[in-house]
Amino acid sequence: MSRVGVIGAGIMGGGVAQSLATAGHDVVLIDVSKDILDSTATRIRTELRLSRLVGATKEPVDTDRALRAITFTTDYADLHDVDFVIENVTESWEIKQRVYPVLDDVCPPHCVFAANTSALPITRLASLTRRAPQVLGIHFMNPVPMKPVVELIPGHHTTPATVATAEELLATMGKTAIVVNDSPGFVSNRVLMLTINEAAFLVHEGVATAEQVDAVFTSCFGHPMGPLATADLIGVDTILRSIEVLHDSFNDSKYRPCPLLKQMVDAGLQGRKTRQGFFSYGSHGWEADR
């Protein structure tokens, strides 16, 4: 698996590409516009240099070599010789269902497809392809380069060989997989999205401020980050889409999205990536004030 395709150059996709490149893989990173790709290249360069300066990596990172290992492109045809694809597009069935048939056509027959999704069922995504046995889910945690564990989700048709291939690739990235069954939200987001949604309701109803909600979790429970700071890190828009997917999938009112989340997304308050969410952030996305 020397060559890996990564679809989507947002926060997650960029983090996946960075992790693959520093692990020694050649990466083809695809997004819809050159501006997005240029912005991601700048972000990856900055994060690699910062990680080297603060000693965040066990081995020295050659920033220039890692960036040279990534091909930034808008052309799906550049995936013609990849061995593995990790898809990170927006958490939307309408968007994802347009991507997989294209991947199926351009990627070689042996290529494995991994959906980096937090909520959509893997079996449903695999049905969009002619290679369901070679499709599975890998739910990376954010920020990808810093998180050593992922959820790995086989679909109904996924073969043990495909799971083993994914685990081998993840091992080269220094990541361990926890294999769970295919269900909307899997394990992490079935719990986390409910927690974040309920925390948003507390702010929406005036029960507590965002600062107070997170302080309960960090001070009383010892969590390194509160649920609303976590929402800002993931992206409030992504949180909303994930909750909506769970609500649609289970038809259960407990997943009813908090109106505050919808209002924040409409206002462009999406968290760290827009420098304002439940909390405010500085020009580099670091927390400035709470």
UniProtKB/TrEMBL annotation:
Q: Which residues form the 3-hydroxyacyl-CoA dehydrogenase NAD binding domain?
A: 4-182
Q: Which domain of life is it from?
A: Bacteria
Gene3D superfamilies per record: N-(1-d-carboxylethyl)-l-norvaline Dehydrogenase, domain 2 (1.10.1040.10), NAD(P)-binding Rossmann-like Domain (3.40.50.720)
Q: Which UniProt keywords apply?
A: Oxidoreductase
Specify whether Iron is a keyword of the entry: no
Which InterPro entries does the record cross-reference, listed alphabetically? Answer: 3-OHacyl-CoA_DH, 3-OHacyl-CoA_DH_NAD-bd, 3HC_DH_C, 6-PGluconate_DH-like_C_sf, 6PGD_dom2, NAD(P)-bd_dom_sf
UniProt lists the family membership as follows: Belongs to the 3-hydroxyacyl-CoA dehydrogenase family.
Designated name of the protein: 3-hydroxyacyl-CoA dehydrogenase family protein
Q: What's the source species for this entry? A: Streptomyces lunalinharesii
